[in-house]
Amino acid sequence: MKYEFKGNQGDFYVENPDLTSYLYFPLANESGVMSCVSPDLGGDSKMDQNSFFMPPVSCESLHNDKSSRNVWCRIDGTELWSLTGRSSWQQAQLFSDNKEPVAVEAGFMHHKVTRTSKHLGIKGVINSLVPATGEKVELMKIQIENISEEYKCLQVVTAIPLYARSADNIRDHRHVTSLLHRIKTKSSGVIVTPTMTFDERGHKRNHRSYGVFGGNESQRPVGYYPVLEDFTGEGGNLENPKALYEIPLKPQGMDYETGGYEALGGLCFQECRIGPKEKITYFVAMGYGNSEEELIHSCEQFLNERAFDSSWEQTKEYWNQKVNVRFRTGNSVFDRWMRWVSFQPMLRRIYGCSFLPHHDYGKGGRGWRDLWQDCLALLMMDSSGVRQMLIDNFGGVRMDGTNATIIGNGQGEFIADRNNITRVWMDHGVWPFLTTELYIHQTGDLGILLENNSYFKDMQICRGEDKDLKWTTEDGERQRADKDQIYSGTILEHLLVQNLTSFYDVGEHNHIRIRGADWNDALDLASQRGESVAFTCMYGYNLKGLADFLEEMKVQGVEEFEVAEEVRQLMAGDRTVYDDIRKKQEVLARYCRDCSHSISGKKAIIKGEELQADLRAKASWIYDHIRETEWVTSREGFGWYNGYYDNSGNKVEGETGAGVRMMLTSQVFSLMSGVATDRQVKEIVKASDAHLYRKEIGGYRLNTDFHEVKMDLGRMFGFAYGHKENGAVFSHMSTMFGNALYRRNASKEGYHALMSLFDHCSDSEKSRIYPGIPEYVDAGGRGMYHYLTGAASWYLVTVVTEMFGIRGHYGSLVFKPQLLKEQFDNQHEASVSLIFAGKNLKVIYRNPRNLDPDVYGITGISLNGVPYRIGGDWSIKREELLNLPDQELHIITVDLNLE
User: Fold this and answer.
1) Do 578 and 496 belong to one domain?
2) What is the pLDDT of residues 447-504, one digit of tens each?
3) Which pTM was predicted?
4) Residues 48, 51, 57, CA angle at the centre, nearest 5°?
5) How many domains does the chain have?
6) Are residues 514 and 397 part of one domain?
7) Which of helix, strand or coil describes residue 147?
8) Alpha carbon of 339 to those of 135, 328, 373, 489, 831: distances in Å?
9) Strand 70-75 to strand 272-274: parallel, antiparallel, or no bridges (unpaired)?
10) What CATH number is attached to the domain comprising 50?
């Protein structure tokens, strides 16, 4: 399989994708419809965990299941042909010389598959989409063309399984829940309305209807196959249905009703005779409704060419406009591939971390990290609404510095775990600061730190080590003060709570305890003695960054801050405590006890200079401590940072009798935080290249092979090496490695990390995926868990803010490009179009002498053709940008030359 891009929007074309396994493509909208389609239109559609239109699929179901959005064509009353290739005889020819040519053309949220049968003299085309206009439907346009020189009689029958219930029921009362189905036929389709729901919500009356409707301007179905077993027949199946062998066909009529069976969207259309080069066209809508009337109205409006084609164009235009960052470099494939990377954070906002075939875990929604990392991409594409989103997200922080782990559907909605499962990820406190930092620099909005929000409250207290037995669900899920009032604190206070509690939450080597896990969820077996040096680095970075914000706020005249009286005890004090593990643990334990049920509600005033000094002292201590204790070397002379201690209290990384043990995460955060010295940057790159880099699978592996099922560190070591968290090329951390290298001005090395991943993923013959970035690349080079990965946000942010060097600094637009000479086009230019300060900007870098970033510097800037500045500070003040006219594209030209 090898795809080709068509045009500049990222649309692509691929021949014979049906010869590549595990392919799927997302079709969704922002109203809750989440579908996916394979090249043979397998996959599924759902609104949530409890509302699956089709049977839920996992990755193996894509090629083992017989369910699909099948469309049958009976030719001259005898030949049966599947437009999706799902007949048993077409399947048998898949690897023969008689294989039917298949092609897929796709772009954001629209998909077209073409199949040709030369020996039958017929070609079928199926266009699929979910309307961006918000209707709760998935649409198909079916076209069949007679490519022979003879007249043909064609009859079309759809066969789309209607599962119509919770994913839980796939093997939990699968048959029993079919007894709830009430099935009926209407003039344009088949409707299923279960009487009740059987799922984790209990036995409740159901109010959702599902249906398949079809027709065109002049026709509606002439018959229906509403019951799956009646269609497949005794001994038959969906790839060889017995009903279609009857002569004539014997479908049910209109207004037929039954119940208690698996349902099918089987629509039978009138047989028609068409001449050479003629076509017949039908439209199918698969929809959801809170009533049958709503369902019918939503679907029937699309059963004509004008409505479908209009929706097709609207959907294409909508998503192309939403993905409003565009690149132009010397590599046009990279530029168009980046369109898909930029699109992926939008997919994760819709699908969460579930609801695509590889993402077959959880029950929907996003995780804590996702809330913050998806905002990174939003800040590059559409910052409107991000401010309130960030404020609302802070409502998930607990007073003990941990956070809610069940995220509701609404913005800022966090839910207590009704199963009272204690799980603390010790890295969770890192990400809110990183996103807030980018937001403040992109917007200049330091004032967000003084906004207020409540704290999350449930039974879990003392960072997961105890239960608040006084708390009940009736108390609500917000922290209360002594007088039963909901307590609110500033966003600054929330950040302080997260990062200061982490400073004191240390193990026996004076690094933060790993607890349930860190960024790598599979490091989950070291909750007692495990420690994460890697994320201790980042907590140090955050403390330093908070101090920098306080320094800038002082310049703006803000010199005092309110914090909860209880939080005050985490500040200042005796600095000799920093080296005393027991005393640090006592400070944290006392604080957690004071916040265990309610807090006083009293506020303390703290001076900014005092707080700033405290934060810097803590950050400096962390940096010094890690530099002194965690640098390791191998016999080859390579050096790197140890990032973990296991549950036996042993240092994880270094050289052992089993060989070199090295983890990429440890290097990423020592570099990104600044813990690694400038000299150590080169050492870490050498070690990473020697022990972790594998070009043939996309770049930097997550770790070396430990040759051990390491039960004192995490389940990842039970995975075969080279898969998922155990030694795969994990896109998220590979991307962050590139980001960290760019931050340390290692341009060529950062480029190498990012482009290794791009080179592999964009080579679809190796990665075997459609355009975009997967969660990881497995040992065989296949891209796995496509689309829903935080790597996409980090990749986009890194390309814009580090590679192109276009970023904010307290609201002003700063230029610090690190583009290599090979990234400029044949005119020696590279550009990016984006929105900054609410203005449409196109930044063009000109590099006439074809120089690299270690040689060139900025020598001039022009704004809309007028010289803006020559020499001095290479930035544009926010006020000047805000004065530019709206609704216009503003061109900024930046000249690069020898300084």
Assistant:
1) yes
2) 999 999 999 999 999 999 999 999 988 889 999 998 789 999 999 999 999 999 999 9
3) 0.97
4) 80
5) 3
6) yes
7) coil
8) 25, 11, 18, 39, 14
9) unpaired
10) 2.70.98.40
